[in-house]
Amino acid sequence: MPGITREEVAHLARLARLELTAEELDHFAGQLGDIIGAVARVADAATEDVPPTSHPLPLTNVMRADEVRPGLSAEQALSGAPASEQQRFKVPQILGEE
């Protein structure tokens, strides 16, 4: 089973700018060793007869075709606005700039 040494954990901690105590180095070395072992077991899975997929279920396109349809005119779009100016929505100034 692959492992990670205390020195490697200390090196990773320095790279991450973490200050670890001696007890934490020993503790994390064991934990990271277990994680590395678990990840290594994934390579042992029997996947020769499993095709690569990006999704476990087949997907179908459920989007509709693009069709040009008439939209709102500027007057219709602005009809419910509290204020408008030059065929645009008028909003309160927030930055104090001209």
UniProtKB/TrEMBL annotation:
Signal peptide range in chain numbering: none
Domain of life from the UniProt record: Bacteria
EC number, as in UniProt: 6.3.5.-
TM helices/strands, residue ranges: none
Region (Disordered): 73-98
Keywords, alphabetical: ATP-binding, Ligase, Nucleotide-binding, Protein biosynthesis
Pfam family, one: GatC
UniProt catalytic activity: L-aspartyl-tRNA(Asn) + L-glutamine + ATP + H2O = L-asparaginyl-tRNA(Asn) + L-glutamate + ADP + phosphate + 2 H(+); L-glutamyl-tRNA(Gln) + L-glutamine + ATP + H2O = L-glutaminyl-tRNA(Gln) + L-glutamate + ADP + phosphate + H(+)
Cited SUPFAM superfamilies: Glu-tRNAGln amidotransferase C subunit
Protein purpose: Allows the formation of correctly charged Asn-tRNA(Asn) or Gln-tRNA(Gln) through the transamidation of misacylated Asp-tRNA(Asn) or Glu-tRNA(Gln) in organisms which lack either or both of asparaginyl-tRNA or glutaminyl-tRNA synthetases. The reaction takes place in the presence of glutamine and ATP through an activated phospho-Asp-tRNA(Asn) or phospho-Glu-tRNA(Gln).
Family membership: Belongs to the GatC family.
Quaternary state and interactors: Heterotrimer of A, B and C subunits.
Protein name: Aspartyl/glutamyl-tRNA(Asn/Gln) amidotransferase subunit C
